[in-house]
Amino acid sequence: MSVRIVISAFVLALLPLASSSLARADDSMEKAKAVKEEGGKYLDADGNPTYKIENGTVDWYTFSGYRRYHSDCHVCHGQDATGSSYAPALVNSLKTMDYATFLSIVAEGRKNVGGGKENVMPAFGDNKNVYCYLDDLYVYLRARADGAAPRGRPPKHEDKAQAAKDAEASCMGG
């Protein structure tokens, strides 16, 4: 049996899995589609914060989430949310994690023990540099998980809306 036949059979066997994964990715991106805008913040059909990326320009909250992620989260969760030896890849976690669960884990922390291994996500509910930007972080990670935002700093972003400035001043005590 030739190598070409074996590889062809292998590819044909994987096709249903690949199309299933693509369908899930399409579903995820469709679910994340911005249907409403409030003061520069985009929301999906369920009212959850989401991203809006058009012609390489990201919304302010996605850009802010990128900045916040790389100031507080990347040390454990890796560059561009791709994971590390002791913290999961959030680009994978956010594919199935809903908004409420994300908020709960970041605010309250989480401890996973199993297989002789212990992972601890510290609580950030008292850290204003994280807590005041939870939506921004969620939006950025959601865009990364959906493949809508590439690795690295977004090259272009929308201007910061007045509503974002006001929310930041209110939360940070300014």
Describe the protein's topology.
Layout: H1 3-31, E1 36-38, E2 41-43, E3 49-50, E4 53-54, E5 57-58, H2 60-72, H3 74-77, H4 90-93, H5 99-108, E6 110-114, E7 117-121, H6 128-131, H7 134-145, E8 156-157, H8 162-172
Parallel strand pairs: 5-8
Antiparallel strand pairs: 1-2, 2-3, 4-5, 6-7
Helix pairs in contact: 2-7
Concise account of the structure shown:
This protein is of the alpha+beta class and 174 residues long. The protein has helices at 3-31, 60-72, 74-77, 90-93, 99-108, 128-131, 134-145, 162-172; strands spanning 36-38, 41-43, 49-50, 53-54, 57-58, 110-114, 117-121, 156-157.
Descriptive notes:
With about 170 residues, the chain is of the alpha+beta class. The protein folds into two domains: about 30 residues; about 140 residues, Cytochrome Bc1 Complex, Chain D, domain 2, CATH 1.10.760.10. The chain has eight helices and eight strands. Helix 2 crosses helix 7. The longest helix has 29 residues. It is globular and about 45 Å long.
CATH architecture of the largest domain: Orthogonal Bundle
State the domain count: 2
Sheet/helix structural class: alpha+beta
Q: In total, how many beta strands?
A: 8
The top-level CATH class of the largest domain is Mainly Alpha
Uncertain regions: pLDDT < 50 for 5+ in a row? 2-15, 17-25
From the alpha carbons, calculate the radius of gyration and give it in angstroms: 19 Å
Oligomerization state: single chain
What proportion of the residues is helical, as a percent range? 40-55%
Largest sheet: 3 strands, antiparallel
Overall average pLDDT: 84
CATH fold-level assignment of the largest domain: Cytochrome Bc1 Complex, Chain D, domain 2
CATH-defined superfamily of the largest domain: Cytochrome c-like domain
- Sketch the topology as an H/E string, one letter per element: HEEEEEHHHHEEHHEH
Overall spatial form: globular
What's the total helix number? 8
Strand order of the largest sheet: 1-2-3
State the end-to-end CA separation: 72 Å
**Percent of residues in beta strands:** 5-15%
Protein name: C-type cytochrome, methanol metabolism-related
Domain Cytochrome c: 64-128
Keywords: Heme, Iron, Metal-binding, Signal
Biased composition (Basic and acidic residues): 155-168
